[in-house]
Amino acid sequence: MSVNQKKVLIITNKVLNYRNDLYELLGEKVDLTVVHAGDFKDNRSYKLIKLEKLNFKTFYYYKGLKSFLKKHTFDTIISIYDLYFLNNYNLAASKFKNKLLFWGIGISSSNGLKEKKLTDIFRLKLASKSQGVILYSETVKNIYLANGFKKEIFVATNSTLVSSQASEKLEPSNTINFLSIGALNKRKGIDVFLKALAKAKHESKINNLRAFIVGSGAEKENLEALVKQLDIVENVVFFGRISNPEKLTELYQKSIFSFSINQAGLSVLQSLGNGVPFVASQNAITGGELFNIKNEETGFLIPSGDEQDQIQYLTKLIKRTTEDKEHFIKMRKVCKTYYLNEASLDHMIVVFLKAINSI
């Protein structure tokens, strides 16, 4: 570590595996300390400090953070952009505000990133006491600008590390494969896709369609029952949970597109990083990842709301993969290029360093 490296503190809730990848890369560039309240311990290139989390109904507070900051000096402090994190108000009202950045979605994610006026007034007021914000998307940045936000705004697309083995090439296959990765819960809309798959199969007599379902969760038994009911048992493969990146890459390379109809999270970036278009509804629950789907370029945005409309759209899209497979193959290079240039972890690091050096 160089003596000239900037000393950076990130305050977060808990360190998840995908965030650890970011911290490890950032820790190679700056003298990084991460304060959290979780159980993660596998850090290597950065220091990890666990503090006690005190809960007050929906609000929470890190005991000992104030004394920790008195004992240590940092050039930049990046705190989780959460209105329920009480320490944020202390930071914004203290001498540390001159080196403070907030990092997060920047808007409510509970209703498809729609603005909540009263909440957003508080959010913008808090952010105005800092040196700026690091947001997940240009869309939210534009909302901030429209509301007259004057401080620095940086956009670091929320992303995840993709295997170095990932290639945008589609492996030759006798089947047309579709991929869903993540927890099996009702709100993802996997059942909607399966109904469309069955409709496409039975209407067009297409027998080489396959849905790869990766993950575990409460909805698995319901999905298995639905598959039997729809008479598509031979068209659906349940893999269970897979954590090995190389195994996931193998499935991506066999799939024409991936999907999560009503919930668009980090699986969007993982898919694009593997060169695979992503399918989700226009108002899917998201932390901003949905905005990486450019219709007909990096994926497909289907109608929101009415299930029958969604099934109709998906049925046509599934049929289209058999009629115009070449179009989907061309999209793969667009997806991979977009990920590398605008949405990779390396791109996140560039933005973070720019934000850190702005203070």
Automatic annotation (TrEMBL):
Signal sequence span per UniProt?
none
Spell out the SUPFAM superfamilies in the cross-references: UDP-Glycosyltransferase/glycogen phosphorylase
The highest taxon in the source lineage is Bacteria
Instruction: Please report the stretch or stretches of sequence annotated as the Glycosyl transferase family domain.
Output: 169-330
What terms describe the molecular function in GO for this protein? glycosyltransferase activity
Q: Which residues form a coiled coil?
A: none
Q: Which PANTHER family match?
A: GLYCOSYLTRANSFERASE (PTHR12526)
What protein is this chain from?
Glycosyl transferase family 1 domain-containing protein
